[in-house]
């Protein structure tokens, strides 16, 4: 199998989805599986569904379309508001969109009307992280406008924390969102069926002891895929961290000095590290670069360390010389995963492991 590649253990994805669905069910919270870090991979989506996920979401219309084309029929939500000219494709491939601007609601209404559809609007509320969301003071007016707009329904409200500013989702924000949902329900007689409290960064709150209130949904990507809590990047207990592995081949492995020589200017990606001589080392290059992954997000094999990276070369220090063509295996973080999955240079290899036993004939594509 050619490398570089990204290996995806679908069993680990299924396991993580199953554990999270189970744990959150005890708190009356449903799970929307978020597929965007895998480019809307239908196989990953199916693994999430085998784990008990009943609805999916992605930030990209192209990914939702790919999953629809692959025959996936569960309800799908568009996580990022579509630009007005994308409204037609949005209503065609998803049941609902997360929106915070009434101009987008209008565009979705027109698009849904043309196709004789009713499109769901999940109104996003700004609770302090300063990414998407309408200010709290404007929520009720917006809800009223949406409830009176043809071809759309107010399908729910939601919020998103942590992604831009690292604001920690907690009891304050969740109670505020709950209260808004309740008020909208009583004021306009429009129930907001979905109250979506946030992303994987909400897990510590959701699995803690605070009241859940009206929150009945979380949108989970990173925790299902990598088994990590994005606030701390620590493993979530009971989840697997080995679903994704980036594999790349050695193309040079030589004994070299640690300090460069010659007059020095800028390197390909800015200021190079200060040269500090440690004598000679084994320097190994693998055919993997910034066009393939985010090198800063890779964990190398034990005993090896990443020294530098450029567009196409990852330079490592290894304990000994490695044969050209031998493969090294790296664990990607969210950023490296996202880049690898969206790079045309990194094909996927899908694996279904029976607890530690490699599948005889892994699916390939
Ligand atoms: C990406 C995204 C998510 C999922 O985030 P994770 O941290 O991967 O769980 C949820 N909601 C929105 C709006 C997103 O863009």
What is the 3D shape? Answer: elongated
- Give the N-terminus to C-terminus distance in angstroms: 10 Å
The portion of residues forming beta strands comes to: 15-25%
CATH class of the largest domain: Alpha Beta
Q: Provide the residue-averaged pLDDT.
A: 95
CATH homologous superfamily name of the largest domain? Alanine racemase
CATH architecture of the largest domain: Alpha-Beta Barrel
Q: How do the strands and helices of this protein lay out in sequence?
A:
Layout: E1 5-9, H1 10-25, E2 30-34, H2 42-50, E3 55-58, H3 61-69, E4 76-78, H4 87-93, E5 96-99, H5 102-114, E6 119-125, H6 139-148, E7 152-159, H7 171-188, E8 194-196, H8 203-206, E9 217-220, H9 222-226, E10 228-229, E11 234-235, E12 244-257, E13 280-286, E14 298-299, E15 305-309, E16 314-318, E17 327-332, H10 334-342, E18 348-351
Parallel strand pairs: 1-18, 2-3, 2-9, 3-4, 4-5, 5-6, 6-7, 7-8
Antiparallel strand pairs: 1-12, 10-11, 12-13, 12-17, 13-16, 14-17, 15-16
Helix pairs in contact: 1-2, 4-5, 6-7
Short description:
By secondary structure, the chain is α/β, with parallel strands linked by helices. The protein has helices at 10-25, 42-50, 61-69, 87-93, 102-114, 139-148, 171-188, 203-206, 222-226, 334-342, and strands spanning 5-9, 30-34, 55-58, 76-78, 96-99, 119-125, 152-159, 194-196, 217-220, 228-229, 234-235, 244-257, 280-286, 298-299, 305-309, 314-318, 327-332, 348-351.
């Amino acid at each position: 199998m050619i490398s570089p590649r990204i290996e995806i253990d679908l069993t680990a994805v299924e396991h993580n989805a199953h554990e999270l669905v189970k744990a959150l069910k005890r708190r009356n919270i449903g799970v929307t599986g978020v597929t965007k870090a895998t480019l809307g991979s239908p196989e990953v989506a199916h693994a999430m569904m085998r784990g008990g996920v009943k609805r999916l979401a992605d930030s990209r219309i192209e990914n939702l379309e790919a999953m629809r084309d692959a025959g996936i029929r569960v309800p799908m939500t568009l996580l990022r508001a579509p630009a007005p000219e994308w409204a037609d494709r949005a209503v065609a491939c998803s049941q609902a969109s997360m929106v915070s601007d009434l101009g987008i609601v209008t565009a979705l209404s027109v698009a849904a009307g043309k196709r004789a559809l009713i499109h769901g609007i999940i109104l996003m509320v700004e609770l302090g992280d300063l990414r998407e969301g309408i200010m709290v003071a404007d929520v009720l007016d917006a809800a009223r406008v949406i409830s009176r707009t043809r071809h759309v329904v107010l399908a729910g409200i939601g919020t998103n924390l942590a992604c831009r500013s690292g604001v920690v989702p907690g009891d304050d924000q969740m109670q505020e969102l709950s209260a808004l949902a309740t008020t909208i329900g009583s004021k306009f007689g429009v129930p907001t069926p979905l109250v979506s409290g946030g992303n994987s960064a909400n897990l510590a709150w959701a699995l803690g002891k605070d009241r859940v209130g009206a929150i009945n949904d979380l949108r989970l990507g990173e925790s299902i895929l990598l088994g990590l809590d994005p606030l701390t990047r620590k493993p979530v207990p009971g989840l697997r961290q080995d679903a994704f592995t980036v594999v790349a081949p050695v193309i040079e492995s030589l004994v070299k000095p640690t300090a460069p020589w010659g007059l020095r200017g800028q390197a390909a990606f800015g200021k190079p590290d200060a040269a500090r001589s440690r004598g000679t080392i084994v320097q190994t290059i693998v055919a993997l670069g910034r066009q393939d992954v985010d090198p800063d997000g890779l964990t190398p094999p034990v005993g090896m360390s990443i020294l530098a990276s450029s567009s196409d070369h990852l330079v490592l220090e290894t304990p000994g010389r490695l044969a050209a063509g031998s493969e090294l295996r790296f664990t990607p973080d969210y950023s490296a995963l996202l880049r690898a999955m969206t790079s045309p240079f990194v094909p996927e290899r899908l694996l279904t492991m029976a607890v530690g036993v490699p599948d005889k004939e892994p699916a390939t594509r």
